[in-house]
Amino acid sequence: QAQTPLVTEIESSADKVWEQIRKMDNIDELSSFVSKVQWKGPKGIGGERVCTSADGKGYFKEKITGFDDKTRTYSYQVIEGVPAKNMNNLIKVVDLGYNKSMIVWTSSYEFMENPNMTKEQFDGFITSARLEMVENIMKLVK
Question: Which residues, including other chains, have CB under 8 Å from residue 82's CB and lie 6 or more apart?
Fold first, then answer.
């Protein structure tokens, strides 16, 4: 079940935006929900990151499933730590020309019933987390 893609236009070149997004191990600098990131493996397909929650009590683990500098895209799957399965995300930076670009972030997942969070709460969390990260990327490329 796919969420509506988050599409954000940015007053900055696609290369500049991609330069920030392709780092992949700086989620803790982009999200208030993450206190630290541990990276394992290649910076690209097969790489994995474990993101520790802000309170230090929880974590989620992600695996990079696609990465392409030419098309400025990468995809990752959340494999542990969230009440969802088959959680796939794709981030793409589109060059709009005239020093403008667009970030397109697509997520799909199957929510798993659990006592801690409703589907609406989880959807809301994912949406606000993505929005915050995109806002912080925009600040970095200004």
Answer: 60, 109, 122
